[in-house]
Amino acid sequence: MSGPTPPEKPWALSESDAAEALDVSPTHGLDSETVRRRLDHFGPNSLPRALRRPAWQLLLEQFKSMVVLLLMAAAAVSLIFGDWVDTSAILVVVVINGAIGFVTELRAVRSMEALQQMGSVRTTVRRDSAAQQVPADEIVPGDVVLLEGGDMITADLRLLETSLLEVDESALTGESVPVGKQTGPVGVDTPLAERSNMAFKGTGVTRGSAVGIAVATGIRTELGRISSLVESAEAGRTPLEDRLDHLARTLLWVTLAIVTLVGATGILRGREIVFMVETAIALAVAAIPEGLPIVATIALARGMQRMARRNALISRLSAVETLGGTTVICTDKTGTLTENRMTVTRYELETGAVEVPSGAADSNDFGLDGDAPDSASPILCTALEVGVLCSNASLGDDDGSDAVGDPLEVALLVAGRKAGIHRPELLKDLPEVREVAFDPDARLMATVHETAEGYRFAVKGGPEAVLEHCTRIGHSDGNHPLDDEQREQWSGRNKAMAEVGLRVLALAEKTADDADDDAFGDLTFLGLVGLKDPPRSDAHDAVVACQDAGIRVVMVTGDQAMTAWSVARAVGLVDEHDMDVVHGRELTSLDEATDEEREHILGALVLARVSPKQKLDLIALYQEAGEIVAMTGDGVNDAPALKKADIGVAMGRRGTQVAREAADMVLTDDSFSTIVAAVEEGRAIFANIRRFVVYLFSCNLSEILVVGLASVASAPLPILPLQILFLNLVTDVFPALALGTISAGRGVMTEAPRDPEESIVTRHHWLAIGAYGLMITVAVLAGLALALRWFGFDESRAVTVSFLTLAFAQLWHVFTMRDHDSKLIRNAITANPYVWGALALSTALLVLAVYAPGLSTVLGVEDPGFTGWMLVLGLSIVPAIAGQVLKVAGFPRIQAAPPRHRA
After folding, report:
1. Strands 629-633 and 647-651, bridge-based pairing
2. What number of helices (H) and strands (E) belong to the chain?
3. Is the distance from CB of 418 to CB of 558 less than 8 angstroms?
4. pLDDT tens digits, one per residue of 165-175
5. Residues 505, 589: one domain?
6. Which CATH number does the domain housing residue 183 bear?
7. Contact indicator for 318, 297 with CB cutoff of 8 Å
C-alpha cells in the first residue's frame, strides 16, 4: 500500500478528519520513507509542460517567409522557360538557406527552453518533526506545508492553522482582491471561489501565515485540471521582432519598386525577358536580409545565456532589449547593496548598551564576565527571549549554517544561542498558541505563548511603531511608565544607531489572561537591537559604473532614513554632504504635488520608509518623466511594482516566489552588480543587432546599386542572379552570425542610455549604410571596367572578377563594423574567433564556387587567373580601407546614435 487515497472533498472535513484521512500528524509531518513511497505512487508535483516546438515545425517555418516565396517564384519562372539549371540552383539555395535557418533557430529555441528549466521553486514542509525546504515537485499528498507571506502555494492544501492569512487567487478564480482564509469546514457543494479553508496551487500568499496539509498534487490539483484542457500556447512576438519585421517589410516594398524599374529598363533595352525577371527577383531577395530574424534570435538567445552565466535569469526575450535602454534603477538596500548577512551587534536597554560577541552561533559567550544573561541583566535576558520567540526561523545545526527563515530573524536566534537561549527548548516551556503575522503597513509582528499564569506576548518591529504602542518600559527593578520625554530619548538612541549603519528593531512584551487579547495594546518596551549588514564588496564599483553609463541609481527602501543614508554613503551613492533623503510620507500625495515637489522626488537618490504602494506611484512618476525604470523587489507586496516597472528584477535567494513570478529578471545571487552586468549585456546585444543590421543592409545595397547602375548603363551585369543568391548565402549569414557574438566593448557603459523611441536604424545609420554601400559599388564597377577595358578579359571572366570583388569586399567590410572609439588592429571584431571562422568558411566556399566542377558552371564563373585574383584582392580591400579612414575621421559612426541628453 503506497498511501491513503486523498479525500475527494477535503473542504467539507474538519482539520483532524483531513489529517486522519491522509494518515499524517500535523505536528510531526510525514517521515522520509513515507514520502518516498507516496512520491513513487502519486508522481512528481508538477504540471505537464507545454509541448516543445518539434524540429519539423521549425524546419517548416523556414519556408513560410516572403523571401522564400520570391525565390520559389524565380524557380517557377525559370522552369516555365525551360531553364532546368537555374531552377535546380535556386531550389538548392532555398534548401541550404532553410537548413541554416533551421539549425540556428533550433539552437536558439532549445537554449531558451533550457533557461526555463534553471529556476527551481522550493517549499517549506514539516517532515520528521522538523521544518525543511524541499523542491516543490517533491511535495506529496499528506505533506504538512508551512506558508508565509510571499510564498507561492505549490499544491492544493487543506488549511489547519491560519494567522491573518490572505491569498491572491486571481490566477485561478479571477478574483482581483486577496481573499481571507480560515480553518473550519465548509459545505460539500461550496464553489471553488468560496472554499475559505483551502489554498490552491498556483496562487500566492499576500499576507499572514498558515499551516496546511497537501490534499492534491500535480495534475490532480485545481490548476492541474485547468492546465490539462490547454494543449498548446502560441508563442508571442517580442517588440524587437516586430521592429525588425517592420523594417524588413518597409525595405521590401521600396526594393520591389526599384527592381521593377531595373527589370523594365533591361527588357526595354533588349535583354532577355526571363533573364531580367530572374534578375529583378534576385535583386529583391538581395535587398532583404533573409538571415536577419535568425541572427537577431541567436543574438538574443546568446545574450540570455551570457546573462545566466552572470547570475541573471531573463524570463522573456524583449527584456533583453529593454535592459539596454534602462535609465533609472530603483534598488532595495538589504541583500542587494548589502550582503544580507544580518548579525546582531548591540542591544540598547534602559540599563545600558550590551555589545554582542562576533563568534559563531554555538560560541555561548555573551561577554558578561561569565555570568548568564538572566543573572547579569534580567532585562537583556527578556529582550533575548522576545527576539527568539517572535520568529518563524530555525537555526538547524549548531553553527546555524543551514538556517531557514528571514535573515533578520535568524540573526536574533543566533544572538539568543550565543547567550544559551535555544528556541526549541524555550518553546517547550512557552508553547506558541497564536501568531500575528508581520504587517508591512504596521511594521509589527507578535507571537503569543502559554505560561502557567496566562499568556505572554512577544513583539518586535520598527522602533517608531513599537514605541507608539508601549505604555511602560522595563527597568532592572521592574516596569515603569513610559512618558513622551523618554520616547524622544529612545528615538534619539534609534537615530544614533541608524547613523552608523545599523538596522534597528525594537522589542516589547506583555502578559494577559486571554490569548486573543490585542497583541499590540499596552506593551512594555524592552529596548532596541542593532543589526549590522555590511555593504557588498562590489556594490561601490557597480554604482560608479551605472553613474558612468548615465544611469541614475536610486535606493528605495522600507528602512529608516538614517540607516538608508549610511549605506548609500558607504556604496558611493551619496557623499557625506548630501543629506537629502525623501521620506515615504512625501509620496502619499503625488497627485496633488507641485512641479517643484515632483522635481525634488525625481532628483532624490535615497528614499526611505517607502511602502509597496508608494513604489508603484514612484515608478509611475519616473515613467511620466520619460525614464526607463528597472525596479528590484523581493516581497509579495513588491509584485505589482515589479510588473509595472519596465524591467522588474526579483531576488533569487531571498525573493518570494510571487516576486519571482512577476519579474522579468531574477538575480540568482541577489547582487546589485549583477543588474549592472545585465544592463551591460543588454546594451551589447542591441549594439550587435544594430551592427549586423548596418552590415547586412550596406552589403545588400551594394548589390542593388551594382546591378541597377550597370543595367541602366547597358553594361554587362557585374553579378548574375544565381551569384546574388550565392552571396546572400555566404556573405550574409555567416559573418552576420559572427557579428552577433561580439562581447560588450569598454565604451558600452560610458555613453548615456539610448532613447527608448529610437529605431534600430536611424537617419545617421542610413547615411552610414549609404556610404559603405556606395564604396563597395564603386570598387565592383571599377573591377568590371578594368577587367573588360584594361586587361581585355572576355565578359564571362570579367563578370567573375566583379562577382569575387563584391564577395570579398563584403567580407572585409566586417572589419569596418568595429566600435568607433576602438583600436584599428586590436578590437572586438579582430579578437573574436567566430569572425575569423566565418571569414575562413566564406572564403573556402568562394574558392569552391570558382574551382568546383558543376558549381562553377551553375554560377557562371571561371578561373580569373593570377591577374584576375590580384585585381579582385586589390580592389576588394579598397572599401574596407576607405571605411577605416572615414571612421578615424569621425564618420560614419554606426555603433551608437548620438548620446541621449537627459536632465
Report:
1. parallel
2. 31, 24
3. no
4. 888 776 666 55
5. no
6. 2.70.150.10
7. no
Distance in angstroms (rounded) separating the CA atoms of residues 332 and 555:
6
Write the DSSP assignment of 308-319 as a string of letters: HHTTEEESSHHH
Mean pLDDT on 547-554: 90
| Three-class secondary structure of residue 848 per DSSP | helix
Contact 846, 810 (CB under 8 A): no
Does one domain contain both 653 and 740? Answer: no
β pairing state of 478-481 and 470-475: antiparallel
Between 334 and 486, the higher pLDDT residue: 486
Q: Per-residue pLDDT tens for 42-95?
A: 999 887 654 556 777 667 766 665 556 666 766 676 677 666 666 676 677 667
Lowest-confidence range among 101-110, 386-395, 572-581, 584-593? Answer: 101-110
Residue type at 668 in one-letter notation: T
* 865, three cell numbers: 587567373
Q: Would you state the torsion angle of the CA atoms of residues 880, 883, 889, 892, taken in this order, to the nearest 10 degrees?
A: -150
Pairing of strands 470-475, 523-532: parallel
Count Cα neighbours of 584 within 13 Å in the Cβ-side half-sphere: 17
Among 284, 292, 252, which residue's Cα sits nearest to residue 708? Answer: 284
**Contact criterion met (CB below 8 Å) for 165 and 209:** yes
Q: What separation, in Å, do the N-terminal and C-terminal C-alpha atoms of the chain show?
A: 71
Distance CA 673, CA 629 (A): 17
Q: Is the peptide bond before 178 cis (omega within 30 degrees of 0)?
A: no
Domain range holding 155?
Answer: 10-45+139-227
Domain stops at, among 640, 670, 700: 670
pLDDT at residue 286 in the model? 61
CA distance 738 to 749: 22
Q: pLDDT digits over 491-510, tens only?
A: 999 999 988 888 899 999 99
Helices (H), 174-238: 222-227
- Final residue of a structural domain among 204, 227, 250: 227
**Radius of gyration, CA atoms only, the chain:** 35
Task: Note whether 21 and 4 are within 8 A (CB).
Answer: yes
Domain count, the chain: 4
Same domain, 385 and 518: yes
- Nine-digit cell string for 296: 537577431
Cβ–Cβ < 8 Å for 555, 567: yes
Please name the helix (run of DSSP H) or strand (run of DSSP E) that holds residue 529, with its range, or none.
Answer: strand 523-532
CB-neighbour burial class of residue 268 (10 A; exposed 0-12, middle 13-18, buried 19+): exposed
Residues in the chain: 903
Pairing of strands 552-556, 328-331: parallel
Whether 271 and 221 share a structural domain: no
The three grid cell numbers given for residue 301, joined into one nine-digit string: 538567445
**pTM (two decimals):** 0.65
Mean pLDDT along residues 382-405: 79
Q: What is the residue type of 201?
A: K
**Contact yes or no for 71/93 (Cβ under 8 A):** yes
User: What is the structure's pLDDT at 839?
Assistant: 94
388 and 459 housed in the same domain: yes
d(CA 308, CA 129) in angstroms, rounded, equals 37
**Are residues 633 and 654 in contact, defined by beta-carbon separation less than 8 angstroms?**
no
Task: Count other Cβ atoms within 10 Å, centred on residue 40.
Answer: 11
The residue whose grid cell reads 569572425 is 835
Q: Is 332 a catalytic residue?
A: yes
Kindly name the residue from 332, 559, 670, 732 that is annotated as catalytic.
332
CA-nearest of 599, 777, 768, 583 to 694 is: 768
**Same domain, residue pair 619 and 548:** yes
C-alpha cell at 183: 480553518
Q: Is the pLDDT of residue 903 over 50?
A: no
Q: Residue 361's pLDDT is what?
A: 54
C-alpha–C-alpha distance, residues 819 and 893, integer Å = 8
For Cα atoms 156, 161, 167, give the angle at the middle one, nearest 5 degrees: 50
- Residues 813 and 695 sit within 8 Å (Cβ to Cβ): yes
Compute how many other C-beta atoms are within 10 angstroms of the C-beta atom of residue 382: 20
